[in-house]
Design goal:
Elements lengths: L4 H4 L10 H11 L5 E3 L10 H12 L12 H15 L8 E4 L2 H12 L5 E6 L5 H7 L3 E6 L10 H8 L4 E5 L11 H13 L3 E5 L24 E6 L12 E4 L2 H12 L7 H11 L3 H23 L5 E2 L7 E5 L7 H12 L1 E5 L10 E5 L4 H19 L2
Parallel strand pairs: 1-11, 3-4, 3-5, 5-6, 6-7
Antiparallel strand pairs: 2-8, 7-8, 9-10, 10-12, 11-12
Helix pairs in contact: 3-10, 4-10, 5-6, 7-8, 11-13
Cofactor: pyridoxal 5'-phosphate
Catalytic activity: L-aspartate + 2-oxoglutarate = oxaloacetate + L-glutamate
Family: Belongs to the class-I pyridoxal-phosphate-dependent aminotransferase family.
Length: 391
């Protein structure tokens, strides 16, 4: 007996990119302290008032089957938030609640992809993107963004491979680079989508983490609301990663299809979690700013450290909880550097190669530990890079 091709080929015959992370976790299990700068997990837990509301809702009996598209009050709150943030009128009928952003990504692609269709995505990319597309029966095709362009994708590069494709996945603010796509970049992407009749799937889970400039949802651009599915999540904005609560925003007809998909897959999200998400959204933008502030602060601290050396380069990160660092001056690949840094100093970072070919020679640093320890780790990282470069 064999697994289906859909499951057995999710990794495309290659690595899943998590080897350094897994090695770091093995070291921790064995009793070796490791400074983890790998995954986008807040160093704070979900706020006590949110958990208390979740507890209240569970004890109050909201533990049975909940409304599959999402409880009405939560869908209304998400629609209101999206309308206020993007300027695009949004109703509950445009909202489908999902078990987290990853589920939303899979659902969105399943909704627009037929088996064998080409699904485009930008390299560098979040590590699960290619597998998500394969799981949705797509043929993934990466489009390289260039470090020389600060990883802003070029519309011409997308257009060159867009003929016959079905969808394009973009992510701004971007994981892994921390880049926020400019209006010019997004308008170029929108033009390609309209010219080649592409669905645009926009992963906007970091929309509250903007350090410079502005977040523009491509759904707000002319002619794009009817062809865009937006993925959102409470994970990053409210430190609710383990609660698994997210959403897809899209045209009403597509949301109806997504509801049918949920009915036959996950059957919705637990009611007490939805209640807690509603409570969290009602805490307002000040709370979201509070959750994001440590990453803004650490980004500034890291820039100060990096300004004091000339070996490690930094991609201009205007958002998200990550920095993409250029370590090519060491003569090492991102993976070689990451493993060597882990062995030498017990500091775990993600190799750029975990996020695609475009990020080769880079590493991704997650700004997810306490300030003093983070600054110390950044100094050690830079000193290690200087040692390896021979400067």
């Amino acid at each position: 007996m064999q697994a289906s091709k859909r499951i057995s080929t999710i990794l495309g015959g290659g690595s899943d990119g998590w080897e350094v992370f897994m090695r770091a976790r093995e070291m921790i299990t064995e009793g070796t302290p490791v400074t983890e700068l790998t995954i986008g997990e807040h160093d704070i837990r979900t706020a006590a008032p949110i958990l208390q509301d979740m507890h209240r809702a569970a004890l109050g009996g909201h533990t049975g089957y909940a409304s599959i598209p999402g409880i009405t009050a939560l869908r209304d709150a998400i629609a209101k938030r999206v309308t206020e943030r993007t300027g695009v009128p949004t109703k509950r009928e445009n909202v489908m609640v999902t078990p987290g952003g990853q589920s939303a990504l899979f659902a969105a692609h399943t909704a627009v992809i037929d088996p064998g269709d080409t699904a485009l995505y930008i390299d560098p990319y979040y590590a699960t993107y290619p597998g998500t597309l394969r799981g949705a029966s797509a043929e993934p095709l990466a489009i390289k963004a260039h470090a020389s362009d600060a990883f802003q994708p070029r519309a011409a590069d997308i257009a060159a491979v867009a003929k016959g494709a079905k969808s394009l996945l973009v992510n701004s603010p971007n994981n892994p680079t921390g880049v926020v796509y400019s209006r010019e970049t997004l308008e170029g992407i929108a033009d390609v989508c309209k010219e080649h009749d592409l669905w645009l799937i926009s992963d906007e889970v970091y929309d509250t983490q903007i350090w410079e400039g502005e977040h523009i949802s491509p759904r707000a651009l002319e002619g794009m609301a009817e062809r865009t599915l937006v993925v959102g999540s409470m994970s990053k904005s409210h430190a609710m990663t383990g609660s698994r609560i997210g959403w897809v925003i899209g045209p009403e007809e597509m949301v109806e299809h997504l509801i049918n998909l949920a009915t036959h897959t996950n059957y919705g999200v637990a009611g007490f979690i939805q209640d807690a998400a509603l409570f969290a959204l009602e805490l307002g933008e000040d709370f979201e700013t509070e959750i994001a502030e440590p990453f803004r602060r650490r980004r500034d601290l890291a820039q100060t450290v990096l300004a004091g050396q000339n070996v490690v380069g930094v991609v201009p990160n205007a958002g998200a909880m990550y920095m993409m660092l250029d370590i090519s001056a060491t003569g090492m690949s991102g993976q070689e550097f990451a493993f060597a840094l882990l062995d030498a100093h017990h500091i775990a970072v993600m190799p750029g190669e975990s996020f695609g070919k475009a990020a080769a020679g880079h590493i991704r640093v997650a700004m997810t530990i306490e300030d003093t320890a983070f600054v110390q780790a950044m100094h050690q990282l830079c000193d290690f890079a200087k040692e390896k470069s021979g400067r």
